[in-house]
Write a structure and sequence with these properties.
It contains 5 helices and 17 strands. The chain has a single domain, classed as Outer membrane protein (Lipocalin, Beta Barrel), CATH 2.40.128. The strands form 3 sheets. It has a 12-stranded antiparallel β-barrel. A two-stranded antiparallel ribbon has the order 1-2. A two-stranded antiparallel sheet has the order 12-13. It is about 10% helix and about 45% strand. This is Lipid A deacylase LpxR family protein. Keywords: Signal. InterPro entries: LpxR, Put_OMP_sf.
Length: about 375
């Protein structure tokens, strides 16, 4: 539903903020010092081929931050149902601009790389879900309910020696106050499309709290030949909250030229992780990518229904998988990405899996 993008901008501006951070590895700080650099580490392992055996000068990291826009919609698969639209706008600060308390608190977390510098990402987001039939005022009870989620998030992200840690806390609202109904109907009016008729049956208002953690190992396996580079990045993580609770794992394969130092284009969770952060290794680069992610799901409010109030619900599948493939292009300090996602059935009675696309653009400055 590309129809919801403009009003999603309005709805998302009422959301909160996302924080993500990126420190550089302590071990590389020693290398930077030996090369005459001082202060925070300015060298991170990586090569122009995207492999992990040669240092790359990262002094330009201090120049500024990154804006990122992610738009996900089922219009890319010519459908209009289930997870039908997602929008997220983010700003990632330059290193050293994080609050002192946040840096210290993140450094206390065990088994993570949050002990160094951090980057901060502020985000606004909204997601929308509908049943398969939006023409009826009373959708079948066997189909997923109407629902919207408006949120802001705060988190920290750290890259240490090719390992990325991402921790994010999201706060928001599920239900009519998410403005999903207004978003969809406004855009349908603008494009003279039929209004969805069943929003009166959507989930009730409920505060939404979500904690998500992902760990990725960039280029755990990597190589190059004939001017092309390839790498494999596994990931694992979990989510806790009244929106989603799950454990997940998977991997991403990249093949291209002048691979940037990144973890794939950003996505809207639940998804393969990706990242707002990226650093090009040349003025031009590209890569094809494919990835899989499997989730063991304990909670999905958009299928289970409201936590404390009576609402519509369906019986969810305990295991859900995503298969995705796409293209990313970097031109100077800008990265464009398109991802096409195939998602397995999420609830009992669903006739087939879903498809949707994700477009993202990120700007370094």
């Amino acid at each position: 539903m590309i129809r919801s993008v403009s009003a999603h901008l309005c709805g998302s501006l009422l959301a909160g903020l996302v924080v993500a951070s990126f420190p550089l590895a302590d071990a590389h700080a020693q290398d930077a010092t030996s090369n005459g650099n001082t202060g925070s580490a300015t060298t991170v392992v990586g090569t122009t081929d995207g492999t992990s055996d040669q240092p790359v000068d990262m002094a330009h990291d201090a120049e500024g931050g990154t804006f990122s826009l992610v738009f996900e919609n089922d219009v890319f698969s010519d459908t209009d149902r289930h997870y039908t639209n997602g929008f997220r706008l983010s700003y990632m600060t330059a290193p050293g601009q994080e609050p002192e308390w946040l840096r210290k608190a993140a450094g206390l977390l065990p088994y993570t790389g949050f002990g160094g510098d951090v980057r901060v990402v502020w985000s606004l987001g909204q997601s929308m879900y509908t049943p398969g039939d939006t023409a009826t005022t009373n959708p079948p009870l066997t189909d997923r309910p109407y629902a919207g989620w408006l949120y802001g998030s705060v988190g920290v992200v750290a890259e240490t020696g090719g390992v990325l840690d991402q921790l994010e806390l999201s706060l928001g609202v599920v239900g009519p106050s998410s403005l999903a109904e207004q978003t969809q109907k406004t855009i349908h009016d603008l494009i003279s499309s039929d209004d969805p008729q069943g929003w009166d049956t959507q989930l009730k208002d409920e505060p939404a709290i979500q904690l998500t953690y992902q760990k990725s190992w960039r280029a755990l396996a990597a190589g190059s030949a004939l001017g092309f580079a390839a790498d494999v990045t596994p990931h694992a993580g979990f989510a806790l909250g009244n929106v989603f609770t799950y454990a997940n794992t998977g991997f991403t394969l990249r093949v291209g030229q002048d691979l940037p130092r990144d973890y794939g284009p950003p996505r809207i969770s639940p998804s393969l992780p990706g990242s707002t952060y990226f650093r090009p290794t040349d003025n031009w680069g590209w890569y094809l990518f494919a990835g899989v992610d499997g989730r063991a799901v304990a909670q999905n409010i958009f299928l289970d229904g409201n936590t404390w109030k009576d609402s519509r619900s369906v019986d969810k599948k305990p295991l859900v998988g995503d298969l995705q493939a796409g293209l990313a292009i970097t031109i100077g300090g800008t990265r464009f990405g398109y991802t096409h996602i195939f998602r397995t059935k999420e609830f009992d009675g669903q006739d087939e899996g879903d498809q949707f696309g994700a477009f993202s653009v990120s700007f370094n400055f």
